[in-house]
Amino acid sequence: MFLTSEDKQRYYASREWAEKKSLVRARSGGTCERCRMAPMENTHHLTYARFGREMLEDLQGVCVPCHEFISNKSSVDPRNADSSGQGIATTKFVTGIAGSGKTEREKRRSEGDPKSMQLTATTGVAAVHAGVTTWWTALGLRPDTIDDRFVNGRMFDFMDELSEDHRLLAIDECSMLDGRHLDMLVKTADRIIAERDRDFGVELIGDFCQLGTIKGPGNPGARYCFEADCWPRFDKNTEKVAGNWRHSEENFINALSLLRRGDGRAAVDLIKNNVTWKSCVDMRFQGTVMFATNDECDRFNERRFIEIDEKVQTFNSRRSGKQAAEWRRHVPESLDLKIGAYVMVLVNDTEKDPLCPTCEANNEYDEDRYKEDSSYRAMLRQRRAVWTCARCGNRWRPRSKFRWVNGDCGTVVEFFENQVRVRLARNDQEHWIEYAKNEFVTKSEYLKEFDRKQCDDARRTGRELPDVSVWLRERSAWLRGSVEFMPLRLAYASTVYKSQGLTLTGPIQICIRHQFFSKEGMVYVALSRASRSDNLVIVGDADMLVRRTKVNPMVRRWL
User: Fold this and answer.
1) Rounded CA gap, 380 and 432, in Å?
2) Ranges of each domain in the chain
3) Which contacts of 23-30 are long-range, i.e. CB under 8 A and separated by 24 or more positions?
4) How far is CA 553 from CA 182, 224, 292, 359, 546, in A?
5) What string of DSSP letters covers 393-426?
6) DSSP, residue by residue, 522-534
């Protein structure tokens, strides 16, 4: 419905609008809901989709400076300005409970608008799970060179290049980010704003009630990122993602909320009758087993793999050019599998069908062709925003089928060339898993390692540079290197640290006997990987779980 300016003015003068403004003011407490600093003066529409019949979540109480900024009447964002009114780097914190979908939401934003952010993660394992790189790799750094590159100014050079193509450096699983590194990143981003007059900032994504950065003799001086000097800037620009897409059982959701708060006793009372309790580890458990330490996991996986009386099939990774640090550490050179092995899938299904939904409903899936015809498989995985149906010619926007997702577990049932057929535990469906490819891409016109003439010649001719970097014309970026690997790993056992960020759909056996399980947030992270409480088998007793459940007092403000 088209509304004239007279219609809008008439509505803004109505009693209904006055009542809605009053409710928004009561909700805000008289303080701007955007910058949380100045008094609320205006009621702003976040969307006009329900104009005249707005819900309260469609409206935001804002101060005059914020209203002028979001109405494009001012270029200074009050949330990101110092006391003199000069612009400084954007800082934002996106948080939510485990399973709220905060990471997936930001990933969709990044895919929909690649310039909006460079999505990264704090650890190599988290990066592999999310299909991104670590933040230091995105900046061309290594963990052991971060301090040095900040001091000699190279961090600024690398971030300057990144800011030419992205408005944000987004860091997932920020609970494991060292506060000292966060201060370095924000100071560098502030310098870019000052010297380049470019819109840029840092976004953090995570839940501080999950596992945090490791402090101790091996990491002297480490700080949580909420202990960083710059943290107040993130604190005042915090967005909480509501909802829970991972868990559907109400009692289990309430129990996880109690574990998150450190109330183990009340949580146990809610789930003790659904959970299976064991005194020792079941060596033939059909599902994922979770331990506190790497040594326990490795021994358990080896023990179970040896038991399978089948021929070993080896899948070697294929590497080319420059390798990201997390690829070297977390993508193995080879993967040994057997028929009957229990595995975890490490990537999401991205396949789309070339038929529109109407034709697809009457179409039989050609599995034989998919298995044998690589061009058919490539066609199904094309990533186009709008497709033309291969049958009726209609144009439509496809969605990924997500027949499997990162964290799905299942049993290997067949091998065929470079494919593995896996029967998923959650629905008994079988799917072919192929090699996944991660690419190291640099979005800049020139590369530091080569002179401009070499880069210009390579871009013009399409030839490789001496380090096999090649210019991708359609993406206006350099492909520096790649790794292709079978995106599976033995899933009989995993550490809690390596599981953070995953949703495990099958049964889970959690051994809480090791003292390391008393680390703050460990019990909450471990149990929240499950989708239902009746999927849980806990090695230990209820009293032990209560003793192991701990929360860092410093994170209670985010409960």
Assistant:
1) 13
2) 5-70, 88-240, 250-345+488-558, 357-421, 436-485
3) 23/56, 24/56, 24/59, 24/60, 24/61, 25/61, 27/56, 27/61, 28/61
4) 21, 13, 22, 56, 17
5) --EE------SS-TT-EEEEEEEETTEEEEEETT
6) HHHHHHHTBSSGG
Report the C-alpha gap between 118 and 513 in whole angstroms.
Answer: 40
H or E stretch covering 392 = none
DSSP 145: G
pTM of the model: 0.58
Dump pLDDT digits (tens) for 280-316: 999 988 888 999 998 899 899 889 999 999 999 999 9
Q: What is the CATH number of domain 5-70?
A: 3.40.1800
Position 295, amino acid = D
What is the per-residue pLDDT for 185?
A: 95
Per-residue pLDDT tens over the stretch 432-485: 999 988 888 887 788 888 888 999 999 889 899 998 899 988 778 889 888 999
What CATH fold (topology level) applies to the domain 88-240? Rossmann fold (3.40.50)
Supply angle C-alpha 22, 28, 32, rounded to 5: 110
Beta carbons within 10 angstroms of residue 489's beta carbon: 18
